[in-house]
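Onboarding guide, step 5: your first structure request.
Type a short instruction followed by the sequence, for example:

Predict the 3D structure of this protein.
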Amino acid sequence: MEAKHIETATRVGAYTAIAGSLCALTGAALWGLSGADLDAALATGDTASYLTAAGDASLMLVTNLTIWIVMIFLMGIAATAMASLSGHRPVIARFAMFCYWVGAPLVMAAYVAWLAVVVQIAPATSPEAIMAAEVVGWFASRADWVATILVLGIGPPLLSLAGREDWVPTWLARWSVLTAVAGVLNAVAMLTGGSGLTTYGFVIIPIGVGWMLAAGIVLFRQIGALQRQTA
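The system replies with structure tokens like these:
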């Protein structure tokens, strides 16, 4: 039964981590093509231009945010499966799960708030619309980044530490140190006004998503060996 549980958790972790990472990359591509950067608008005070751009690219942004909601759901499942594979350090594994169980619903709420700006406010640029967009958008942006630190900054080092003697190779553990550094940089960017979120603070995205994708591949490569053991 234990071997069957390990095989199932490995399979679920592999598939959801890879699928969630691909969703992250797809959504990021759509966001980049939209030309509407909420963080930049909040940092520069040019919310009116953002609302105009968001109105023009509303379908692309709605698709982007919907894909990202699916992304965080899949990553939460993946992290839970990874933590369940970490039998040598169960307490640290629970800390890791807690990061994702807090971060996932927080970022979903952030994306729904972001959708409200895109669907309900844009492309209006009246003073009332700008004020509403700045308030709702500030919450969406900061909640998104706080959750990102939990999911892509703190979560990977905890998962790596918990699973070091079970499924995490040395190179993946070392990679998780970079996600932690990127999480600190992102926190600094938020605490210093937000302008750094579009530059050095944004580095957490490729590093963190890359770690999750690599972790999924590590687990995927273990599936065949586990199937032979349980056959």
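Each response can be followed by summary notes, for example: The helical segments are 2-34, 38-44, 47-56, 58-84, 90-121, 127-162, 170-191, 204-230.
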